[in-house]
């Protein structure tokens, strides 16, 4: 038996290895890389106008309390560590009427684009037939509701971030415990937010139990991205000159957004693989035609075909001709040779040609 066959058999028998492989294969089957790029594009367009609007609104509302304004803005910018330090400087953002108008237009365009891209990614991941996906008007209304949910969660996370800045006053011991509690509470809130997004962004009826694994994984990844973004600032941006710092800021933000978008889609694929039992997969199925498909392979490929149904009266069927001829372990037994029945002596009977009747 070849090495690849041994590895294939091992991952098919062990769920701890078969499920991650199936999630990765599903991610690339759905072209998750390009879905993440699309989300990143609209997120990049919406972040700067969103922060501009936030700064402008705070400038008008809290005009008489600049200290509170700076504190709230700093807490919000901590959610975006790559650009938070730059935009949080005194000269970074300043409010005005023109800034609010321009920022509102840019934010609406970018944010709706993010919501549409996320809904498209979730419907592709769950292989929702095209005729069951929302129309151009419905998808934008659903996107607005999705954005409202994310906005409330973002505001709550900002409040937690502001609280974490004040826990040091409790003393060293209580301060550490309080910071850990705030981080865990923020991760729990983020997990709940991701769970809502994963359920609301698709027309498939996704239960809370089905969305929980991916939401928890996404919350952990989001926390790691915030830590990694802060480290990127300390190592790269702070030591760069003005010109290099601008490029490092923009490229770092794009990379940070892409990692977040792609990770979110990958975590959503965890839910799909577990809920639809799309595992184990054949180890070489992305690389070769000469593989014996598993039940997970057949279910995944059938769902991809069914997702292309455009009308309710259109019928899509999937059949597979491969019945195990590409592997000795699962090949059907060979049929016995066509041997005449034995005679009494145990020898095959002599085969004679049939006698033709003679006409008298």
Automatic annotation (TrEMBL):
<feature type="compositionally biased region" description="Pro residues">
    <location>
        <begin position="330"/>
        <end position="343"/>
    </location>
</feature>
<feature type="transmembrane region" description="Helical">
    <location>
        <begin position="211"/>
        <end position="233"/>
    </location>
</feature>
<keyword id="KW-1133">Transmembrane helix</keyword>
<dbReference type="GO" id="GO:0005886">
    <property type="term" value="C:plasma membrane"/>
</dbReference>
<feature type="transmembrane region" description="Helical">
    <location>
        <begin position="170"/>
        <end position="190"/>
    </location>
</feature>
<keyword id="KW-0472">Membrane</keyword>
<protein>
    <submittedName>
        <fullName>Ribonuclease BN</fullName>
        <ecNumber>3.1.-.-</ecNumber>
    </submittedName>
</protein>
<dbReference type="GO" id="GO:0016787">
    <property type="term" value="F:hydrolase activity"/>
</dbReference>
<keyword id="KW-1003">Cell membrane</keyword>
<keyword id="KW-0378">Hydrolase</keyword>
<dbReference type="Pfam" id="PF03631">
    <property type="entry name" value="Virul_fac_BrkB"/>
</dbReference>
<feature type="transmembrane region" description="Helical">
    <location>
        <begin position="245"/>
        <end position="274"/>
    </location>
</feature>
<feature type="transmembrane region" description="Helical">
    <location>
        <begin position="42"/>
        <end position="62"/>
    </location>
</feature>
<dbReference type="InterPro" id="IPR017039">
    <property type="entry name" value="Virul_fac_BrkB"/>
</dbReference>
<feature type="transmembrane region" description="Helical">
    <location>
        <begin position="146"/>
        <end position="164"/>
    </location>
</feature>
<feature type="region of interest" description="Disordered">
    <location>
        <begin position="319"/>
        <end position="360"/>
    </location>
</feature>
<keyword id="KW-0812">Transmembrane</keyword>
């Amino acid at each position: 038996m070849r090495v690849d066959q041994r590895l294939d058999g091992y991952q098919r028998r062990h769920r701890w290895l078969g499920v991650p492989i199936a999630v990765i294969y599903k991610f690339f089957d759905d072209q998750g890389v390009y879905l993440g790029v699309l989300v990143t594009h609209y997120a990049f367009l919406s972040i700067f106008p969103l922060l501009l609007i936030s700064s402008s609104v705070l400038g008008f509302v809290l005009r008489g309390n600049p200290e509170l304004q700076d504190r709230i803005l700093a807490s919000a910018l901590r959610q975006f560590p790559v650009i938070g330090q730059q935009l949080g400087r005194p000269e970074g953002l300043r409010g005005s009427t023109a800034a609010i108008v321009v920022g509102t237009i840019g934010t609406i365009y970018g944010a709706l684009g993010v919501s549409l891209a996320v809904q498209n990614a979730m419907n592709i991941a769950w292989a929702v037939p095209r005729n069951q996906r929302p129309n151009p008007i419905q998808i934008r209304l659903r996107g607005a509701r999705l954005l409202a949910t994310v906005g409330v969660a973002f505001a709550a996370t900002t409040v937690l971030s502001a609280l974490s800045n004040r826990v040091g006053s409790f003393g060293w011991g209580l301060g550490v415990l309080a910071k850990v509690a705030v981080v865990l509470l923020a991760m729990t809130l983020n997990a709940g937010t991701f769970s809502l997004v994963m359920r609301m962004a698709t027309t498939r009826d996704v239960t809370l139990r089905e969305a929980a694994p991916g939401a928890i994984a996404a919350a952990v990844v989001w926390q790691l991205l915030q830590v990694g973004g802060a480290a990127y600032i300390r190592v790269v941006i702070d030591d760069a000159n003005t010109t290099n710092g601008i490029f490092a800021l923009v490229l770092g933000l794009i990379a940070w957004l892409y990692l977040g978008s792609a990770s979110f889609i990958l975590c959503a694929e965890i839910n799909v693989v577990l809920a639809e039992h799309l595992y184990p997969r054949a180890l070489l199925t992305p690389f070769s035609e000469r593989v014996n498909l598993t039940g997970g392979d057949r279910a995944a490929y059938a769902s991809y075909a069914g997702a292309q149904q455009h009308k309710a009266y259109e019928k899509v069927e999937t059949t597979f001709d491969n019945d195990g001829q590409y592997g000795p372990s699962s090949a059907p037994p060979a049929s016995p040779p066509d041997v005449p029945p034995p005679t009494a002596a145990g020898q095959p009977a002599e085969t004679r040609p049939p006698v033709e009747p003679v006409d008298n």
